[in-house]
Design a protein that fits this description.
Layout: E1 8-11, H1 21-35, H2 41-47, H3 53-64, H4 77-87, H5 94-100, E2 105-109, H6 113-122, H7 126-129, E3 133-135, H8 147-155, E4 163-167, H9 170-178, E5 182-186, E6 201-204, H10 210-213
Parallel strand pairs: 1-2, 1-4, 2-3, 4-5, 5-6
């Protein structure tokens, strides 16, 4: 990873573009309680925020002591959808940050395409990312593996070392480092700054600061 201009900014979705993590934590707590293996909100933030569906399922199965049926989460999707429709907003300051960026940007999320597009649509951000939406469903492994970020960079023709990743989870910054990309850890949400800190990572708590941290002036 070498210093130099940033030619692509890769945004995570949940907790970075849309303020969804607080909503998801509440729904996750409800679901795990209904399953009979309750997780506290603190545990959910520690274990699940930014993780893949496989990580979530494995943790639930371990605590439950049995395997869950394939696609078990589908029967709970309506809980997330209803909560998002009622409560979801864009992350504070993200619109100003996007307006000020002078390099191309995209979104790369562990979520599925339909969910990513729905979240961006509910918060009036979808048009800004049209044609540049990448999902863990597109690659063999989601975050914390680097596959998704490398796929996004390759698809848009940018070398990994010229990419910056904006993440709010420990899984996400690990994936960025593994991809050889500069990581910017947003700690204005649920994840404590200490869980985002590490080599090649800038931690910040106000999305409006991002363009300056990236070395970009408003356009």
């Amino acid at each position: 990873m070498t210093p130099g201009p940033v030619d692509l900014v890769i945004f995570d979705c949940d907790g970075v573009l849309v303020d969804s993590e607080r909503i998801c934590v509440k729904v996750d707590a409800l679901i795990t309680a209904q399953l009979g293996c309750p997780f506290t909100e603190a545990e959910i933030i520690e274990l699940f925020v930014g993780s893949s569906g496989e990580v979530y399922t494995a943790a639930v199965e371990e605590r439950l002591g049995r395997r869950l049926e394939k696609d078990w989460q589908l029967r709970y999707e309506h809980l997330y959808e209803e909560a998002f429709a009622a409560e979801l907003t864009a992350v504070d300051g993200i619109t100003e940050a996007l307006d000020a960026l002078t390099a191309p940007f995209c979104v790369a999320s562990n979520g599925h395409h339909d969910g990513i597009r729905n979240s961006l649509s509910l918060t009036s951000l979808l048009a800004r990312f049209e044609g540049r939406v990448f999902s863990a469903a597109d690659v063999p492994l989601g975050k914390p593996a680097p596959d998704l970020f490398l796929h996004a960079a390759r698809s848009l023709g940018v070398e990994p070392g010229r990419c910056a990743v904006v993440e709010d989870s420990a899984y996400g910054v690990r994936a960025a480092r593994a991809a050889g990309m500069r990581a910017f850890g947003y700690c204005g949400g649920l994840t404590p700054a200490a869980r985002l800190e590490g080599p090649g990572t800038v931690v910040f708590d106000d999305m409006r600061e991002l363009p300056a941290l990236l070395g970009m002036a408003g356009g």
